[in-house]
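Bit of a strange request maybe. I'm writing a small parser for structure token strings and I need a real example to test against, not something I typed by hand. Could someone generate the tokens for this chain?
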Amino acid sequence: MVPESTLDDLRSDTALQESDTAGRSGIPVAGTLPARPPLADQFAMLVAVVVPFLGTLVAAALFWTHGGVGWLHVGLLVGGWLATGLGITIGFHRLLTHRGFETYALIRAFWMAMGAMAIEGSPLVWCAIHRRHHEHSDLPGDPHSPHPRGGGWNSTLRGLWNAQVGWLFAGYWSDPQLRRYVPDLLAEPSLVWVDRYYYLFVLISLAIPTAIAGLVGGGVNAALMGLLWGGLVRVFLTHHITWSINSICHVYGSRMFRTADGSTNNALCGILGLGEGWHNNHHAFPTSARHGLAWWQFDASWLVIRLMQACRLAWDVKLPSPKAIAARRI
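Reply from user aminoacidic:
Good idea to test on real output. This should exercise your parser:
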């Protein structure tokens, strides 16, 4: 766990903080907080958070009382999680937000679609919020810092809850400041199109497992089971694995590098998060396409990017130099 005294030391390291800010987004620090979102936006977010949770409870209850979960349902759950999870980690995060590598327009569109079907927000909004996180990491203005001022276990719990779910209702989604944070992405027509029709991708994301299960199993009940396991349960797991990077990986874990925040490396999040849980590494080198910088830090997203590079489907792949790594080591 990162103690508050360590965070205070990190916050007071002005030189390091300024260096990190310049490397994060190139945008002057503002630290302004968003206004409370409209009730309609809050309700939409409530639906996005609660419905997958309720679906997971229903799936667990049905499994407990009736069983009936076969390899098809497991395949829809795991396959959907991998495809859409990589869409977030490779597409939204390493490709779009941080420009960690470049690829062809068709492959770029594929990763955008996979990321949109994770139902974590449209690509422009997702990237804007994440760039804002890097600009203010664990400081006022960070959308999802788990480090509120104060001490004690209750403060820690409040911080973890805010970083996991609470921040979703604070207005960052309804006021993402796109022109401030993603002017480069706004210049891409394909991204703007995906952003405009984001809810179509939400529907497709739920329709695909429903249709596959219905065709294979035959009948409405089979289709509903596909919607349940390949849709709602998959979305619930993908959401909370992603959001655990915001919460757990700023509180629990180890630190390899000096950064101006409390980011940590967490092995469990590193595996479940497809490489994103090596979060201290990422905050030390935000543009790196590889997050698991040690040989033993498994980074599934990097393996896919490396395979793309070997097939000449990715280029300009950014990695920190050995000199930069040595200079940042704790």
